[in-house]
Amino acid sequence: CGGLSSQVLGLGAVVLTGVWMGRYRGGFAWDGSEQEFNLHPLCMVLGLVFLQGDAILVYRVFRNEAKRSVKLLHGVVHLLALIVTIVGVVAVFDFHRASHIPSMYSLHSWCGMATVVLFCLQWVLGLMFFLFPVASSWLRGVYLPLHVFCGVLLLVMSIGSCLLGITERLLFTIMATYSHLPPEGALANVLGVTLLCFGILVISIITKEEFRRPPNPEEEALSVHFKTLTEGACSPTP
Fold this sequence. Notes:
Layout: H1 2-24, H2 34-37, H3 39-61, H4 67-99, H5 107-131, H6 137-178, H7 183-207, H8 217-231
Helix pairs in contact: 1-3, 1-7, 3-4, 3-6, 3-7, 4-5, 5-6, 6-7
């Protein structure tokens, strides 16, 4: 039920963003115009929030599936999120360049860029430590709690950056009428609340004991065997 609700909220946020940019801001294009800028919020909500949230949830939704398969799915969904995010970043910088608008001066841009850089770093380290591990078993064990913490932190940062971006966009476009809550303003407010609810639900799911992955003796035995082969260890690290 929680997983389904998260999908409804996540997809709802993506749809609301598309409607906002499509109906009220003129649609989408890739020509340096304001329509190219409109790809930025859509890609960030889709990549940094919805897909990243789903990548975090795969370990809870598919908790009874083979760990290797779930790990691969986790990495692939994060890769899709990364690609979509990069498209969104390129779109906004391309629009700013074509329109001779300064970049990286607002709080939204600072928080957003910090989130994107940390997200890229998190994905690369996850690839090296877990999907195609080059680090020792001990080092992976030390890094795992930090990896999990950073995943949750990045989701919070992503949603926070989106909320800043929504507010900034509204002030740039309908500041004179926003206080009267026009339809565009109401839609954007609902989008912000939806993003917030999505984040709360995802974090709620991943912190509940009932959604945790149950111990699998066969996987643990294979893990010990792999460690023995690669490190010459005789027993798993407690």
